[in-house]
TrEMBL record:
<keyword id="KW-0472">Membrane</keyword>
<keyword id="KW-0812">Transmembrane</keyword>
<feature type="transmembrane region" description="Helical">
    <location>
        <begin position="62"/>
        <end position="83"/>
    </location>
</feature>
<feature type="transmembrane region" description="Helical">
    <location>
        <begin position="134"/>
        <end position="156"/>
    </location>
</feature>
<dbReference type="Pfam" id="PF04103">
    <property type="entry name" value="CD20"/>
</dbReference>
<feature type="transmembrane region" description="Helical">
    <location>
        <begin position="28"/>
        <end position="50"/>
    </location>
</feature>
<keyword id="KW-1133">Transmembrane helix</keyword>
<dbReference type="InterPro" id="IPR007237">
    <property type="entry name" value="CD20-like"/>
</dbReference>
<dbReference type="GO" id="GO:0016010">
    <property type="term" value="C:dystrophin-associated glycoprotein complex"/>
</dbReference>
<protein>
    <submittedName>
        <fullName>Sarcospan</fullName>
    </submittedName>
</protein>
<dbReference type="InterPro" id="IPR030429">
    <property type="entry name" value="Sarcospan"/>
</dbReference>
<dbReference type="GO" id="GO:0042383">
    <property type="term" value="C:sarcolemma"/>
</dbReference>
């Protein structure tokens, strides 16, 4: 559900303006999270064998771990891109010109970068809607990143739950008592 919501929100953002970049509409992060969820459901359907004695079980677990790590990276990138765009939008000065919304960071700088949002007749509505969508993307992708991180942690912990910490020393008195009882 989380992956689907991120994907749908990304496509909604792309529908607002045709000039939004792919990094600003992170449907790609949601698609990866959906694939991770599907592989997780496949992993649940495979009968469990201790110590991964089947090739299918090992392959699905490895794919699930790698896709979860990829989903984690994609969601963190999506949060970073959305936060960057949101911070820029808070400093925009926008005007509607010929069915497009043109926004500048610094109106006094003639060489300053101009952001053009095509197919937008109302700049105020576009900016407020886009700000809301960017905030939602940040929250949803952060939650998805935490879910992917927890999936990676659980898979790692399940595989390597016993760590070698060295030789365990027993007191000499305990071994002497055990020998006397025999």
């Amino acid at each position: 559900a989380l992956g689907i919501s991120v994907t749908v929100l990304g496509f909604l953002m792309a529908g607002i303006s045709s000039s939004l970049l792919v990094r600003d509409t992170p449907y790609w992060a949601g698609i990866i999270v959906c694939v991770v969820a599907l592989v997780g459901f496949v992993m649940l359907c495979i009968s469990y064998q201790p110590d991964e004695k089947t090739c299918v079980q090992f392959t699905v677990k490895l794919m699930y771990f790698l896709l979860s790590a990829l989903g984690l990276a994609a969601c963190v990138l999506a949060v970073a891109f959305a936060a960057h765009h949101y911070l820029q939008m808070t400093r925009f000065t926008c005007d509607t010109i010929l069915e497009s919304c043109q926004c500048k960071l610094d109106t006094a700088d003639p060489l300053g970068r101009t952001f053009i949002y095509q197919d937008a007749a109302d700049c105020g509505g576009l900016i407020s809607t886009l700000n809301l969508y960017l905030l939602l993307q940040m929250v949803l992708n952060l939650i998805a990143a935490l879910v992917c991180l927890s999936a990676c942690f659980v898979m790692w912990k399940h595989r390597y739950q016993v760590f070698y910490v060295g030789v365990r020393f027993y007191p000499l008195t305990a071994t002497e008592d055990q020998q006397q009882k025999v």
